[in-house]
């Protein structure tokens, strides 16, 4: 029972780290991984989702619906941001860094000024369960399941739907897609909005477990970029294995030597993967396949 | 002839009027108080109240005629929770703005970032924040509480009540590391055992594995020295995982008002030694809270650092007035050296210790209940910041401008 408990504990921790990395990265994987837009305001879309979720929940909306509200609002804001700012800069990828960074500063400070330094949390639902000597939060199992569902959903959306095919075509060869009658501007808008909505979803999902403050997005951003860079351009073939590898490294190192070494281990793993596989894990898998 | 005399008197009277105007302008020359606090970034939540405390005290003092007839003027910069901003603004406020005194800093990292600049430019700075202790520097006055005030009250009390196995989780920078050293030493002195210690980098927000590490060794008491809003997520996550070890802290509740921000009962069973929180139930404290809420009706919480910042303005006023209106550091330190720079603050009586230029405090044991209400099972009056003085720091004799720790004490004279 003791051994079993410890084994379960390790699997739970790996799953937990995996879920955090997948959810932190999925929105960015769409915007940065696919579209090539370096979106430094990613954390602020997450923050937006969390704020909407918390406020909706406090207004009486049940938590699952509140989380969807958070995703929806972040997606709509993403649509507006794409139309006003990002659309002008597709030809100038370096400038999008500055523009989205500026947006993130405006969003963080604007939230601080308008909504104050903190919003009371909503509490983690679903209680806890015990395995062996350890007790665990049930909600974090839900996060693991949602992370897997998001990956599966993205895979289906980009590979099995008409929108997914058009989106991939538009991003690979925009001129050809346009010549064949695809409304590429619309596809870009929708893809960016999808990425923003996924970020909002992450914010909503993690909102009950975290301090709701204007700077909360920044705690996701390092993990998000690291996972996307290690994963490479393909969401399903990149983000999922990258999050799995990094999640195991992080959980193992943290359980062995604490949080500091967890972070060090994570960054070391990233350096090694990028050195060995410059195009990320998905680049490696796709090359093998072709 | 008459005309020349008349012109002469006119000129003389003009000069006289000019002189008079100049001298009265000189008397009205404001005293400049530089304020370097984080109004944005990760620490803003705990520090916006410090700025408000300084503004409240300044308004009160100016309404009552200023300091020795001079108006008190604030020069405020937002340091953005960023250490390099502290260095930049400390230079600016001392060199360009020529501030007479500077109130600066929340995190110990930022204090250590600006302290060499205060030394180099021979400024006079107040650090109105609880910290890990040990700064023996004649350019600094510290009004916040230190470990011998917070830990030597908290830890023996908790070990007696709950048991001798102690686990520490602390923010991984100078504050957390040195505070953890204090915890280690006090636990050992009281016959306890450290069963674990984990340092968490600032900005970490996910604690599942840390929670499991704590469950593994089953401590009786958990000391949490978590800093910043990201790390505060720990409580929500520990409560969700049903980790119910009694917690003690020198920074939580009294600084980040976590009990107001999280849904009960995630902070239940937390004990924090604070020198002030807005729940303190004395007439002085209630009057203070009422004044505050009249000026800042939307203030989420008045924490101990806000009170420290407020009372520090009055201490400064007292020093300048007792120095006959002079603001030079040497004159003010001569006043401190008398050993009776004291005041009745909202928390109770406080005095500045001339040897270390730290401050005595009333220490309240704040217990967070299941519904996140605060009770005070114990109050210690007039706890002195004795460690530096006992260890050999005496700023009335020499000024090493160093930070000392229990494992690196001042050299014995």
Task: Report the sheet-strand fraction of chain B.
Answer: 15-25%
**Count of extended strands of chain B:** 17
Radius of gyration of chain A: 19 Å
Instruction: Characterize the biggest β-sheet of chain A.
Output: 2 strands, antiparallel
Structural class of chain B: alpha/beta
Greatest interface by residues involved:
A-B, 46 and 40 residues
Mean pLDDT of chain A: 86
Classified by CATH, the class of chain A is: Mainly Alpha
- Summarize the helix and strand pattern of chain A as letters: HHHHEEHHHHHHHH
> Given the C-alpha coordinates, what overall shape of chain A results?
globular
What do you see in this structure?
- By secondary structure, chain A is mainly alpha-helical.
- Helices cover 77% and strands 3% of the residues of chain A.
- Chain A contains 12 helices and 2 strands, in the order H-H-H-H-E-E-H-H-H-H-H-H-H-H.
- A two-stranded antiparallel sheet of chain A has the order 1-2.
- In chain A, strand 1 and strand 2 form a beta hairpin.
- In chain A, helix 6 (162-172) crosses helix 8.
- Chain A is globular, with a radius of gyration of 19 Å.
- Chain B has 413 residues and is α/β, with parallel strands linked by helices.
- In chain B, helix 3 runs parallel beside helix 4.
- The A-B interface holds A 9, 12-13, 16-17, 20, 108-109, 112, 116-124, 127-128, 130, 133-137, 139-140, 208-213, 215-216, 218-219, 251, 254-255, 258-260, 262-263 and B 40-42, 44-45, 48, 172, 198-201, 203-206, 208-210, 212-213, 215-216, 229-230, 232-233, 236-237, 239-243, 260-263, 266, 298, 300.
Q: What does this entry show, briefly?
A:
With 290 residues, chain A is mostly helical.
Architecture blueprint of SSEs:
The complex is a heterodimer of chains A (290) and B (413).
Chain A lengths: L1 H33 L7 H17 L4 H22 L8 H23 L12 E4 L2 E4 H23 L1 H11 L1 H6 L4 H23 L11 H14 L3 H23 L1 H18 L3 H10 L1
Chain B lengths: L1 H27 L2 E7 L6 H20 L8 E7 L4 H14 L4 E4 L3 H13 L4 E3 L7 E2 L3 E3 L4 H16 L2 E7 L2 H16 L3 E8 L7 H10 L3 E5 L2 H4 L1 H8 L6 E3 L8 H4 L8 E5 L8 H13 L8 H19 L6 H9 L4 E4 L2 E6 L4 E2 L1 E8 L5 E10 L2 H6 L10 E2 L10
Parallel strand pairs in B: 1-2, 1-3, 3-4, 4-6, 7-8, 7-9, 9-10, 10-11
Antiparallel strand pairs in B: 5-17, 11-15, 12-13, 13-14, 15-16
Helix pairs in contact in B: 2-12, 3-4, 5-6
């Amino acid at each position: 029972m003791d051994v079993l408990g410890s084994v379960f504990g390790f699997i739970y921790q790996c799953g937990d780290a995996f879920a955090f990395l997948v959810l932190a990265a999925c929105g960015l994987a769409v915007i940065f991984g696919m579209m090539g837009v370096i979106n430094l305001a990613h954390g602020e879309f997450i923050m937006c989702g969390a704020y909407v979720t918390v406020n909706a929940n406090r207004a009486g909306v049940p938590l699952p619906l509140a989380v969807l509200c958070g995703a929806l609002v972040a997606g709509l804001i993403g649509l507006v941001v794409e139309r006003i700012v990002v659309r002008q800069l597709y030809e100038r990828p370096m400038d999008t860094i500055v523009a989205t960074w500026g947006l993130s500063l405006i969003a963080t400070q604007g939230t601080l000024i308008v909504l104050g330094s903190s919003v009371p949390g909503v509490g983690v639902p679903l209680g806890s369960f015990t395995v062996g000597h350890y007790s665990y939060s049930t909600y974090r199992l839900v996060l693991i399941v949602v992370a897997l569902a998001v990956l599966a959903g993205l895979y289906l959306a980009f590979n099995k739907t008409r929108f997914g095919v058009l989106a991939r075509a538009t991003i690979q060869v925009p001129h050809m897609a346009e010549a064949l009658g695809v409304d590429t501007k619309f596809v870009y808008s929708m893809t960016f909005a999808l990425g923003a909505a996924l970020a909002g979803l992450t914010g909503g999902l993690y909102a009950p477990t975290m301090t709701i403050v204007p700077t909360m997005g920044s705690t996701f951003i390092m993990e998000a970029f690291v996972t996307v860079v290690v994963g490479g351009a393909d969401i399903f073939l990149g983000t999922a294995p990258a999050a799995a590898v990094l999640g195991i490294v992080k959980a193992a190192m943290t359980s062995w030597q604490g949080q500091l070494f967890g972070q060090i281990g994570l960054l070391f793993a990233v350096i090694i993967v990028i050195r060995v596989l410059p195009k990320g894990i998905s680049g490696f898998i796709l090359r093998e396949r072709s | 002839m008459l005309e020349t005399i008349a012109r002469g008197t006119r000129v003389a009277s003009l000069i006289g009027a000019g002189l008079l105007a100049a001298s009265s302008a000189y008397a009205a020359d404001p005293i400049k108080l530089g304020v370097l606090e984080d109004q944005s970034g990760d620490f803003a939540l705990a520090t916006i109240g410090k700025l408000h405390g300084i503004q409240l005290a300044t308004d009160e003092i100016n309404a009552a005629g200023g300091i020795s007839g001079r108006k008190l003027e604030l020069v405020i910069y937002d340091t953005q929770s960023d250490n390099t901003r502290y260095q930049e603004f400390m230079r600016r406020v001392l060199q360009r703005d020529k501030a007479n005194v500077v109130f600066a800093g929340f995190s110990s990292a930022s204090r250590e970032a600006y302290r060499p600049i205060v030394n180099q430019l021979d400024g006079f700075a107040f650090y109105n924040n609880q910290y890990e202790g040990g700064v023996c520097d004649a350019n600094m006055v510290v009004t916040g509480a230190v470990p011998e005030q917070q830990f030597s009250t908290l830890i023996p009390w908790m070990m007696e009540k709950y048991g001798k196995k102690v686990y520490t989780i602390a923010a991984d920078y100078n504050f957390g590391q040195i505070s953890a050293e204090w915890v280690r030493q006090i636990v050992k002195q009281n016959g306890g055992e450290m069963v674990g210690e984990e340092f968490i980098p600032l900005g970490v927000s996910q604690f599942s594995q840390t929670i499991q590490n704590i469950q593994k060794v089953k401590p009786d008491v958990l000391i949490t020295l978590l800093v910043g809003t990201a790390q505060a997520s720990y409580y929500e996550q520990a409560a969700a995982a049903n980790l119910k070890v009694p917690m003690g802290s020198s920074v939580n509740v009294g600084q980040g008002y976590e009990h107001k921000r999280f849904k009960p009962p995630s902070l239940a069973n937390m004990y924090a030694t604070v020198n002030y929180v807005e729940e303190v139930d004395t007439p002085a404290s209630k009057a203070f809270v009422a004044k505050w809420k009249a000026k800042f009706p939307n203030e989420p919480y008045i924490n101990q650092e806000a009170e420290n910042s407020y009372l520090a303005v009055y201490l400064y006023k007292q020093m300048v007035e007792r120095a006959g209106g002079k603001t030079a550091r040497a004159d003010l330190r001569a006043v401190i050296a008398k050993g009776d720079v004291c005041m009745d603050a909202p928390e109770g009586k406080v005095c500045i210790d001339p040897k270390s230029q730290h401050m005595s405090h009333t220490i309240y044991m704040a217990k967070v209940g299941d519904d996140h209400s605060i009770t005070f099972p114990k109050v210690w009056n007039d706890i002195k910041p004795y460690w530096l003085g006992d260890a050999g720091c005496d700023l009335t004799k020499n000024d090493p401008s160093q930070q000392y720790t229990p494992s690196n004490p001042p050299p014995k004279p």
